[in-house]
């Protein structure tokens, strides 16, 4: 079953089109990573899914209903991000109590266990927490609510490396015990890829890639060797990334070489290098303005 169906979803702010006829579906009980560069539209998309803002055009259904201002969608989903605000007079324990009364599957044992583990003070006010502690508390709220649709928008902002690692482990353990649909947006694909089943990559306001993480890991390959020999092999193929020096090149293309190609590449002294899923995402969403080195090269040449 699909939890989210999205067709031709468009969101504009004035003349700026953030989401541009975006179409995709999210299946029930999967963890999907939402990946895209800064400003790609991840938060905008997640806000539409949660019903916080309205799409400009197109069609979106969450649990088969239009999500905007929809109580059924609200009761079955939780949206965790670093913009969450709570009434200033409520302490952490009171916030969790409220969540427990709103979310039917809320598990207070899990909340308490994580609270103690991360040494949070139940009497403290949310506003007074440090950046990392706020994210930790929000994460506890997100996990303990056990909502059918759980959205984490950049959940690890401010968390130190050890807390991030614990969070990913807690998420995976609780998901395995209580499967639900989870969307997690992050700039650290390398950190979360072991959690993910699917990746949805946004580029130019569209769902550029949407595929299982296992396929993304094999999606591209790097050819390393002499420029002229590699060029013969990459001619007519979409080049995803290229780094050149003197007469050598490292060129990344789609990984669709068969066994006999691989033998011939070896004979041509070309080394095939695997490309990590996070590098694939970086290359695919790279800017068309060259690399950062070009900025300095241009300054030096003035
Ligand atoms: N309320 C708004 N009014 C005008 N423009 C907006 C508004 N909200 C978002 N935008 C613009 O929409 C674009 C996408 O923003 P969004 O926050 O969705 O990106 P993002 O992928 O989550 O970025 P990041 O990874 O930096 O958090 C940006 O160019 C942003 O400036």
From TrEMBL:
SMART domains in UniProt: AAA
CDD domains for this protein: ABC_DR_subfamily_A (cd03230)
Arranged from A to Z, the UniProt key words for this protein are: ATP-binding, Nucleotide-binding
The record's annotation in Gene3D superfamilies points to: P-loop containing nucleotide triphosphate hydrolases
In its UniProt record, a GO molecular function of this protein is:
ATP binding
What residues does the ABC transporter domain cover? Answer: 4-229
Please identify the protein, giving its name as recorded. ABC transporter ATP-binding protein
- Native species: Lederbergia citri
């Amino acid at each position: 079953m699909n939890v989210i169906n999205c067709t031709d979803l468009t969101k504009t702010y004035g003349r700026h089109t953030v989401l541009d006829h975006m179409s995709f579906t999210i299946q029930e009980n999967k963890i999907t990573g939402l990946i895209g560069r800064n400003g790609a539209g991840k938060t905008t998309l997640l806000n539409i899914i949660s019903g916080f803002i309205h799409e400009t055009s197109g069609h979106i259904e969450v649990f088969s209903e239009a999500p905007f201002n929809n109580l059924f969608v609200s009761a079955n989903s939780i949206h965790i991000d670093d913009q969450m605000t709570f009434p200033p007079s409520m302490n952490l324990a009171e916030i969790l109590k409220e969540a427990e009364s709103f979310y039917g599957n809320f598990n207070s044992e899990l909340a308490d266990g994580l609270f103690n583990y991360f040494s949070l003070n139940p009497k403290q006010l949310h506003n007074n927490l440090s950046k990392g502690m706020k994210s930790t508390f929000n994460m506890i709220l997100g996990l303990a609510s056990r909502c059918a649709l759980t959205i984490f928008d950049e959940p690890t902002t401010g968390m130190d490396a050890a807390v991030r690692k614990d969070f990913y482990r807690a998420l995976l353990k609780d998901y395995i015990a209580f499967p639900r649909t989870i969307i997690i947006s992050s700039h650290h694909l390398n950190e979360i890829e072991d959690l993910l089943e699917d990746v949805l990559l946004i580029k130019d306001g569209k769902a550029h890639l949407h595929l299982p993480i296992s396929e993304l890991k094999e999606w591209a390959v790097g050819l390393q060797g002499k420029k002229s020999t590699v060029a013969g092999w990459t001619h007519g193929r979409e080049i995803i990334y290229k780094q050149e020096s003197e007469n050598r090149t490292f060129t990344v293309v789609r990984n669709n070489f068969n066994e006999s190609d691989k033998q011939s590449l070896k004979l041509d002294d070309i080394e095939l290098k695997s490309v990590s899923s996070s590098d694939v995402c970086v290359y695919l969403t790279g800017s068309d303005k060259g690399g950062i080195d070009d900025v300095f090269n241009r300054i030096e040449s003035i």
